[in-house]
Amino acid sequence: MRAARAASAALRGARSVSTVGVVPTPPIDAGAVRLGLPGAVGNTPLIRLNSLSEETGCEILGKAEFLNPGGSIKDRAALFLVKAAEESGKLKPGGTVVEGTAGNTGIGLAHVCNARGYKCVIYMPDTQSQEKISLLRVLGADVRPVPAVPFTDPMNYNHLAMEYAESHENAVWTNQFDNVNNRRAHEETTGPELWAQTGGKLDGFVCATGTGGTLAGISRALKAASGGSTKVFLADPPGSVLYSWVTSGGAKMERSGSSITEGIGQGRITDNLADTELDGAIHVPDERTVAMVFRLLAEEGLFLGASSCLNVVAAYDMAQRLGPGKVVSTVLCDGAARYQSRLFSRSWLEDKGLFEAVAPEHRHLVAFD
Ligand SMILES: Cc1ncc(COP(=O)(O)O)c(C=O)c1O
């Protein structure tokens, strides 16, 4: 308590010496204090997943992206997309940011827009969780859930977002799928953070992709830092073409089935993912993803969304492929609170044929009927 009071007094003191109307004087310990919400994005902890590391004889590390201020890895992309729009002169004070998103980029954008004085319009497929839609509304975004149709359909949420921006004054479509400022966020922040946090001893990285920004940016950063020796794999859920695309050397784009995961899986090669160096791919069925949701909660105390848990399954498989003694990392994209009415509901899991995938010793964690 006393320490907290002293710290807050120190900050008040720091503020009192700043000059009104000028960029605030950095607080006393500029390394410890982040400048506003944008300054709090990134620099997330790297967590050793103990039980999985011990089981594989490798170090399996998850980057805790759910600790970003908007609660997901997409805060990084949101910040870079807005900054790029500002720097290009397209986004002017009081303007509107428009995006098509499965939810997390929208949540990141809504936070950044509030912090910088912009309006935020979000088009999203109506298949996404109610928790994400409600959160976007609470954050003040103008949310427009629309029927989930393929990218080739003019009514796809991305095309609607673009059209809205084109037909409104001072509105910018941030275009997260094909605007490579998304990838840049990870090439300039997430990748270098991972390299520094592992002291340059990183044998493998793997994650799933939605826009491709995370995987492509981190691949670029790690390949540059390691001179090409860090192996980078793509992880893919059912219903996505990317596993077939990577394993066929780009010759095939086949898909089958569908997935309960949100925000990942793709039917095309986005500009963010194009020309990315990848060493392999891992397909993860929903049964293994769901089992990992409950295992990570029961054994590691980590309450993570399905894409994070798919990533951890893939990191486990990659560790086994690389062999004992290796260091393998992935990203823990967001928390499970965003999906809890689905993932932690017995009837929802049964409806998807996934209740049996939860290990019997973890079934007490399925909290809702
Ligand atoms: C929960 C979640 N995980 C993973 C991703 C994929 O990240 P990226 O778009 O950088 O490929 C997203 C994207 O929206 C997401 O919402």
Structure notes:
Its cofactor is pyridoxal 5'-phosphate. Residues 40-334 form the Tryptophan synthase beta chain-like PALP domain. Belongs to the cysteine synthase/cystathionine beta-synthase family. One of its GO terms (cellular component) is mitochondrion. The chain is α/β, with parallel strands linked by helices and 369 residues long. The chain has helices spanning 2-16, 36-39, 50-56, 74-87, 104-116, 130-138, 157-166, 181-197, 213-226, 242-247, 286-300, 306-322, 340-343, 346-351, and strands at 46-48, 59-63, 96-100, 119-125, 142-146, 171-173, 204-208, 231-236, 280-283, 327-331. It has 2 domains: 37-68 and 186-365, Rossmann fold (3-Layer(aba) Sandwich), CATH 3.40.50.1100; 73-173, 3-Layer(aba) Sandwich (Rossmann fold). It has 14 helices and 10 strands. It has a 6-stranded mixed beta sheet. It has a 4-stranded parallel beta sheet with strand order 5-4-3-6, with helices on both faces. Helix 9 links the parallel strand 7 (204-208) and strand 8. Helix 4 crosses helix 8, helix 8 packs across helix 9 and helix 11 crosses helix 12. The model is unreliable at 1-19 (pLDDT under 50). Pyridoxal-5'-phosphate is lined by residues 72, 74, 102, 104-105, 209-214, 263-264, 305, 307, 333-334. Pyridoxal-5'-phosphate (PLP) binds next to helix 5 and helix 9.
Oligomerization category of the chains in this entry: single chain
**Number of helices in the DSSP assignment:** 14
Specify Rg, calculated over alpha carbons. 21 Å
The 3D shape can be described as globular
Write down the overall mean pLDDT: 93
Order of helices and strands: HHEHEHEHEHEHEHEHEHEHHEHH
Under CATH at level 1, the class of the largest domain stands as Alpha Beta
Q: What is the CATH topology assignment of the largest domain?
A: Rossmann fold
Spans where pLDDT lies below 50 across 5 or more residues: 1-19
Tally of DSSP β-strands = 10
Q: What compounds are bound to the protein?
A: pyridoxal-5'-phosphate
Please give the order of strands in the largest beta sheet.
1-2-10-7-8-9
As for the number of domains, it is 2
CATH architecture of the largest domain: 3-Layer(aba) Sandwich
Separation of termini? 42 Å
Strand content: 5-15%
Helix content: 40-55%
Keywords: Amino-acid biosynthesis, Mitochondrion, Pyridoxal phosphate, Transferase, Transit peptide
GO molecular function, one term: pyridoxal phosphate binding
EC number: 2.5.1.47
Organism: Cafeteria roenbergensis (Marine flagellate)
